[in-house]
């Protein structure tokens, strides 16, 4: 695996990989890799000739009050994992390369970025959209892979890529990969490592109660009382606060009162022991 830290080296390496017209996947990450990221790399390898991964802890998607400095950094360990999964190229720029002096541009995607995490983390999705647009322009992949765990992020990136004409011929496809879960159902996340043993055990209440709520909604119950019961169960299990628990249209992310005919999603963000966990699951009427 080649590692590039500058744009010149990146472009030379990408040109070599694509010299015969090969497809190139990009798996953007902030490092602290786990099985969820490696699943993205494996999916990318199945679909593309070569895989490039990026590791960049993007400061512009963290609010001043958030955990940028505490965010885990383990570049060597991550690089070894990517290499053993067959990644051909690691793009690991530092902040000065990504945001040189005088950088003044920000991409803002309205609509899908506004509620949910957009409401509790103002500016977060501007930071994500801007850095992902830069990553697409830097690497010029034919395909890009993102986890469905960050469902709203995926919707924001799809909208940004569509509106800025970054899809064909630049990035032909943006591929969402289903969430990878621990044995007890907790969605894998780099943030799970912040949980104490006690909070880690209690955190599994989140996917369990979400499944319970989905079963009730599919049974015809209205979203509001079902989601209120979900919030109570989480608070009872040791979560300290709930940022949101919402039934939403899976495409527009607009909140829904009841399940209709189009695909819906249950999305939750909740805090436990100072760690903010997010999760989402499909809610579809059985046919
Ligand atoms: O999901 C992430 O790890 C980040 O938000 C991303 C897409 C790499 C942008 O920094």
TrEMBL record:
Keyword Signal: no
Catalytic activity: (R)-pantoate + beta-alanine + ATP = (R)-pantothenate + AMP + diphosphate + H(+)
Binding residues for (R)-pantoate: 61, 153
Pfam families documented for this protein: Pantoate_ligase
Keywords: ATP-binding, Cytoplasm, Ligase, Nucleotide-binding, Pantothenate biosynthesis
EC number of the protein: 6.3.2.1
Record: residues binding beta-alanine: 61
Functional pathway: Cofactor biosynthesis; (R)-pantothenate biosynthesis; (R)-pantothenate from (R)-pantoate and beta-alanine: step 1/1
Location in the cell: Cytoplasm
InterPro entries linked: Cyt_trans-like, Pantoate_ligase
Enzyme active site: 37 (proton donor)
Translocase in keyword set: no
A single MF term (Gene Ontology): pantoate-beta-alanine ligase activity
Record-listed ATP binding positions: 30-37, 147-150, 180, 188-191
Top-level enzyme category: ligase
Principal subcellular localization: cytoplasm
Entry function: Catalyzes the condensation of pantoate with beta-alanine in an ATP-dependent reaction via a pantoyl-adenylate intermediate.
Family: Belongs to the pantothenate synthetase family.
Complex formation: Homodimer.
Further comment: The reaction proceeds by a bi uni uni bi ping pong mechanism.
The protein's name in its UniProt record: Pantothenate synthetase
Originating organism: Erythrobacter ani
